[in-house]
Amino acid sequence: MSSPIDQRLREGSLEAPTRHPLDWQDPGFYNRKSLLTEMERVFDICHGCRRCFSLCQAFPGLFDAIDESDTMEIDGITEQVYWDVTDHCYLCDMCFMTKCPYVPPHEWNVDFPHLMLRAKAVKFRERRVRRRDKILTSTDTVGRLAGIPVVVDVVNAVNRSRAGRKVLQKTLGVHPGAKLPQYHNPSFRKSFRPGSVADAEATTATRGKAALFATCYGNFNNPQTLKDLVAVLEHNKIPVTLVGKEVCCGMPKLELGDLAAVEKAKQVNVPALLNMVNDGWDIVAPIPSCVLMFKQELPLMYPDDASVQKLGQAIFDPFEYLALRHKDGKLNTQFKNTLGTVAYHVPCHLRVQNIGLKTRDILSLVPDTKLEVIERCSGHDGTYAVKQEYHEASMKICRPVVNRVRQAKPDHYASDCPMAGDQIASGLNDGSEATAPITLLRHAYGV
Q: How far is Cα 290 from Cα 285, in angstroms, rounded to an integer?
């Protein structure tokens, strides 16, 4: 009788994938020669497997380059192909989470997204990053400047006009067809006024009062969704406040490879958020990427920092939070309005959190509501879809999502990620707009 197969040698596993800490403070992390050696090793494994060909542009770009080379093997491509693949990876994590059979604990130890993150960090340190990319990822600075009274009207007008978009295309390389977010004055943080609700009522997993990490996007670009979130929480008798101080979560800079900027943001956010946690508040943030930053990326960057690890356990996606309350019978399920058919897109950075489809579960409680769930990447990534050189690729990635929405013929289509919602709206190109799931829930409550 043959001996059992070593789990480390099997292709695929029933075990949960292991995510190793990111050794970004080791000088060797930035050694270009060792990086390229590791990229060659992993790309050769990917070439032999090819399960990820349909996820994004990084993999078909790699495979096409190999197939068009003289040797049709990894040794036939140039170094430039390595950097092209890096630029097309926007760290959605779907290859690691859903496709790759060689992730740890497999002995081949393939973590493609973190390898691409390392490559981006090397590229950034070598000053091979465009000024455009630095500006687009400076969300706090851009939001504050664009939100100045009078200036906000000019910025929004430029973003909507054909002439203005040509200027942005020429000066910053922003694709003229990419949908850009509006800016608002006042910002959410300036306009927030807490309501009067009952005392906090804890459950097994929540303490019953929520401090909002508004996020750059929620604060400057999408305050209405945050207002809807506050209304839903307060309707469920959950006291709401704002975190005393916040800056960008750091995800845009992480995706750029600017890890020093990530650390700078961490030094502001973690103490401020942890103060709220220590005062008995749960942290709730409306953007999946921001929640993921605190739940996964910072804990992997700072595995020995107890504050980071504690915060990672205390921050919640809004529907995760409501689902935990519902589990203990503390969710208001008295709905006044139905939603009909909802085409619901699950963002990649929500799927990576491994919390299940909580948005689907809560919206499904609304009577006479049908959820058409779409678990596929929208291709937006925050900045990838607006760049001149990547916009068409991003829309191609989104096409299956758009087709699913069309087929569903929904009364509403929604995504927890507002940028993914905009991407879907661009693909539909019929004048419709995505609706935030929390806005749909507020409507169902009739608040």
A: 7
* Domain spans, the chain: 27-125, 131-172, 188-323, 333-445
Q: What CATH number was assigned to the domain covering residues 333-445?
A: 3.40.50
Which pLDDT tens digits describe the chain residue by residue (447 residues)?
344 445 555 555 567 788 999 999 999 999 999 999 999 999 999 999 999 988 899 999 999 999 999 999 999 999 999 999 999 999 999 999 888 999 999 999 999 999 999 999 999 999 999 999 999 999 999 999 999 988 999 999 999 999 999 999 999 999 999 999 999 999 999 999 887 777 889 999 999 999 999 999 999 999 999 999 999 999 999 999 999 999 999 999 999 999 999 999 999 999 999 999 999 999 999 999 999 999 999 999 999 999 999 999 999 999 999 999 999 999 999 999 999 999 999 999 999 999 999 999 999 999 999 999 999 999 998 899 999 999 999 999 999 999 999 999 999 999 999 999 999 999 999 999 999 999 999 999 999
